[in-house]
Amino acid sequence: MKKLKWFLLVGLIPIILPFLLIIILAVATAGSPTGGSGVEGATYAEHWSSGDPYTHNLLVHRYGITATQLDGFLDTLGISYDKNRINGKKLLEWEAKSNLDVRGIVAIALNESSLGTAGVATNTGANMFGYGAFDSNPENANNFNDEVAVVALTQQTIIGNKNETFKIQDDKAQKYANGSLNQTVDGGVYFTDTTGSGKRRAETMRKLDQYIDEHGGTPKAPIQLTGKTRDGGGVTSNDIPVGYSLTKAIDTNGYITSTYPWGECTWYVFNRGKQVGVNFDPFMGNGGQWMNKPGFITTHTPTEHSALSFSPGQAGANPIYGHIAFVEQVKSDGSILISECNVKGLGVISYRTFDGQTAKQFTYVLGN
Fold first, then answer.
1. What is residue 150's DSSP assignment?
2. Residue ranges of the Peptidase C51 domain (predicted)?
3. Does pTM top 0.70 for this prediction?
């Protein structure tokens, strides 16, 4: 009987194999890679989002930093800190919960309180990040422990008050001091010190990053998967629809025009992609042609930081050339936020949202 079952199973292989291949291909397609580096809500850069730690976006991470590397760096600082309170394992947990670059977390803790060994950070219940320690009432920090503080300062001080880089923090402190800060436009200050707190923190980040390089380095970040969603966090402004946000503010300074004419939708998406670490070919064609460009994966799954290629006439696109836009956010309900150019005028950047059902009808081009 056992031999009979074996022969029957062998005979079924030619029938079963095609179905197995279909399943494997379906799974592979669902996880098709895109350009840039973002996994489970995090965005990665090899070292810095902008080329240096001072202008680095603190919501962008270096992938694969280990607890051992962090512990080793802390031990080089010559501070008698509480290793139960701050250590590599906890730092990585705080990074995961707050979405703040762990190198930035170390820099803030070191420069605010010498890793919890100085100032109000030594009070019972207080935090080492200076969160809640107002100039007029520093003891208020006692109401926020370390974990609560790092999450809150990310959401409120870094994101809510538009302090995504240490340079921005220094610049706003100077503006606050001379009375030129427009908090409605610029957001509130992180700190009021004008002696270069941001530069010192950036220097700590640089030293930590160098230590990591010298002690094993880090692996290359895995490529972003389709289907990732993001409901909270990010950068907002008055012209972005309420409830949506960008992972990085749009800045057209430095956008190139070598292959795409200035102000066109293609010019914008090509450059916006580069701004967040996603690369498209310099010769993708008109907006409606991007979906057919050889060498690029397309999907109908809404994907953050992909290019949305509208067919001619689709959703108001040009009836001849189509249109291209950039997907800034995909929410858990399936709705999307796109940024685009030349819908309201040449060079004018604007936003639209689409509900989840509509979003599934579009074609998304995944960058390299």
1. H
2. 240-366
3. no
